[in-house]
Design a protein that fits this description.
By secondary structure, the chain is an all-alpha fold. The chain has 4 helices and no strands. It is elongated and about 50 Å long.
């Protein structure tokens, strides 16, 4: 029996890296919401023109796209863990993981399209 053999990860319990990634993305999202709240307070108008004025500058577009990418990664970790923990049929789990990735990539592309159309 080989005592030094590494165990393959089973389920969603991959460890510190994913836990830390989810905490970091949560902090990034909190910082983004603080910046967005400050921009809303400074702008003062809460109609379409006010929102468009907030998201027109390139730095805000880039910051928003990065925040949405962090949101997608945060969601990926959480949903992946749920699928890995509760869906035991391998084919169904793979299908759900694939659909989740495709959906999150679609949402990210849609976000970028919206940001650069303002």
């Amino acid at each position: 029996m080989n005592v030094n053999r590494r165990r393959a990860p089973v389920g969603a319990h991959y460890g510190l890296r994913e836990w830390l990634a989810q905490r970091i993305t949560a902090v990034l999202l909190l910082l983004y919401l603080i910046v967005l709240a400050g921009a809303l307070a400074i702008e003062g108008r809460h109609d379409y023109e006010g929102w468009a004025a907030i998201f027109t500058p390139q730095p805000m577009k880039l910051l928003s796209a990065l925040a949405f990418a962090a949101l997608c990664y945060h969601a990926w970790i959480g949903v992946r863990d749920v699928w890995m923990d509760y869906i035991h049929h391998t084919g169904l789990r793979l299908a759900l993981l694939t659909l989740t990735v495709l959906w999150l990539l679609y949402c990210l592309a849609w976000c970028v399209q919206i940001l650069w159309s303002v």
